[in-house]
Structures are given as structure tokens and as C-alpha cells.
Specification:
It comes from Streptomyces violaceochromogenes. This protein is α/β, with parallel strands linked by helices. Helix content is about 50%, strand content about 15%. The chain contains ten helices and seven strands.
Length: about 240
Amino acid sequence: MRDRDAQPIGGIARRLAGILTARGIDPAVQLTDPVEPIPALQAAQARIPARYQAAVADHPAVAAWVRAIAEAGRPGPEGAPGIAQGRSLLIVGTTGTGKTHQAYGAIRSLLIAGVRLRWKATTAADLYAELRPRPGHDGERELMDLARCPLLIIDDLGAAKNSEWTEEITMRLVNRRYNEMLPTLITTNLGMADLRQHIGDRVASRLTEMSDKVILDGPDRRRALAAERRRIAAA
């Protein structure tokens, strides 16, 4: 996948690693699942799709973002940090390169790091379906709840059918989070030029300023796993 607007992966990781080092944090230390259960992580597992309940944010730039967000958290009850203002992360890659895996891995890593975390996750298609006007449903209230959520995952931005209404919803949601500088994890399989055409210049401009961009490349892991299963079955 080619994207001339993308910042090199190594550049993002090095910049965030420099921030962490200046704060006395070793960016090379991996956040792994703890030996003792963490109640917040256990509670989150029920909301994480089964396929991603063991996800790990093992990409260097994603792991560095997790540490930067954790370090920037405000102290709360019993000294545990909570999500504060911070940079967003735009994870770009073709189908099957592990974008959603890294996004849920980031959530799990923040919880493992002891961050008090209120978060929500949705796909772009589900977002528009849930907010579409219908009798007895307060879509405006739900939109504001998403806009104010300390950490939001929007998976597959650009995959849903576009319209003036979806562009307006995306603009309102992203603009609110942009103004409040709330961290947002966004995945997409579109390069910035195609994404800009799909969601509009105003949204794309805000995403460019508020987000670090990570590009995942390589083969489709789902197809590779399916091919390996067929090989084993045939052996």
C-alpha cells in the first residue's frame, strides 16, 4: 500500500520513544499479560470480540503510543492514572494486515498498564446504522456520548457507503474529539487521498493534525492462515 502523506513507521516510534525516555520510561519494555488478574482487564474482556481477546499491541509505533497515553494520564482514585488529552492514532493497511488486532491490543495494553479507562469501540458501518434517525431512538444523545468518551475506537473508517448524512455525522464526531484533544484509535484500509475523498476535506484535515499515522503492510494474514490450515489438513 502506498501513501505519500504517511509518516514513516520508524519516525513515529522514534519520536514517541524519545518522549518516553525523557520521562524516565524504558520504551523497550513490553506490556505483557500480568500473572495476577486485573479486574478492569477481566471486565473489558467481555466487551472485546472473542477473536481479539488475546490481542497484543506489538507494533513498535502502537506500543509507543500506548505508553505515551498511559504516561499522560491524570491521577485518580488510589493513584491510578486515567485517560487525559492525547494524540490519536490512525492505523492504515490493506485487508488482513492486523489493524483491528493492534487497536484492541492497545486497549488491553492500557488496562495492563493500570490506566483507568472508559472506552467504546464501533465500526464505521455500525456507527452510522446505530445513529440513523428512527422512532424512539435518541441518536443525538448517543453521538454526544461517543464524542465525549475518553477513548474511542472507530474501525474500518471509509468502508461504509458514503452520503451527505454520514459525512456530517463523521465531521461532528471527529470535530468534537479534535477540539477536546481526546485520543481516538481509527483503522482504515484507505490511503489518505482516498480517505479524504470518502469522508471530506474537513474531516481528513483534522485527522491529519490530531493523529500519528501507522502503516501496516504485508500479505493478508487471514488468507495466509486459511492456506496453512488447508496445508495441514492435506498433509
